[in-house]
Amino acid sequence: MPPQSDVRTLKVDAQTARRFLLGGQGLWPGRRWAGERGVLDAVRQIGSIQVDPLNVVGHSQDLVLLSRVDGYRPEHLDRALYHQRTLFEWGGALNIRPIESLPYLLHKIRTADYLGRRALFERTHPDLVTKVLREVEARGPLGSRDLSGGTRVSSYRARRDTGLALFYLWLRGDLMIHSRDAGDRVYDLTHRLIPPRFLEPAAAADAESYLFRREMLLWGLPNSSELLSVQRGSTLGPVRAGDRRGWVERQETAGRLARVQVAGWKGTSWVDGRDLPLLGTIQNGLIPKEWSPLAVGSVAEVTFLAPLEIVSARGRSTRLFGYEYLWEVYKPPSKRRWGYYILPILFEDTLVGRIEPVLDPKTGNLRVAQLWWERGIRPAELVEPMARGLQRLAGYLAAPEIKLGDSISPSFREALVREMRARQADSKGLGGSRSRKVSKRVGFG
After folding, report:
1. pTM, whole model, 2 decimals?
2. What is the mean pLDDT of the segment spanning 88-101?
């Protein structure tokens, strides 16, 4: 959607744009939240966090929070979701959201469907849906394994139609996730888990305004195609691609959207009108006060970005950073370019390389199988930041040793080992973790 001649376009350089995006997501200039309370504050700022069941060196949702919250532990998220209920999970692409967003999402929750699948299931299995709902009501929290009988189905949502009934009852809001049993969802009635004040739908206009803000926080500087996701995420009724131009014009007229041209980026980007002063602050070379890091900033430590990180996943890293990121975990080995579980390395406001971390299930050691640096990066300047980043990850994993693979440059490996050994004198470690033993040995099994 090219800019119209009568619409003012703000011009910024690429560094300003990257810092705005990273700062809006809590990734620059350093961690500004800490501990259990920081988890809720981080999710409120991020907008939502996508959940993934795969656990190699932590679930994707945990790595998202580890990169933003000092001293983060997985039990912090578990308590927020299943005990304090300050966060909840919902959506086909499962996302974690703050509980205060629920009244604004209820419009979407009650009409949620996927290509008519929920409606078809409810039409063809009305008695089953009613029966499963009554079982939860009578018996309390249930997972699909707690329901007897049922017919096998071909669906990645569930193995039997009873499990699908649970899923669709959750999708439409009758049920919420009560807890997890070895990763499997256990559901209970929504009104038994969530306080009544969160179960009253917000007015439609208020809901669209709130959801618009959340979507814009999530995307930061969406381009034309990403703006369609913003429109779909914040519009309560159905959205057609042909409606986009008129919708954009209405948001611009109301001052909710402003056009931005980023040097070196193709096409137009947009910013929430309320964030124009923030963008101006960054363009002037300043750090917004509300973004001040608690301790060490991104100038002193690298961050390993989660596979589903919003700033680098979905192909965004190419446009935003000139960095190709492919999450190849679901590809056959012969078709992988990099490896099974590769994480981008963020330093300051730049993606400088990628790392393949492996957690040995027998010893619990953290192994760095491989490191790749982007063109123009001088690894010798990143020894201390890498040491800090690796020690934080090892502390999170409670890994007794950090092992460096022999595919890593010998000079960098030696320098990194020296730096991490020197840092072992600090018994507290970075982020409250214990110091870690460092090994150059290759292999672990």
Report:
1. 0.92
2. 96
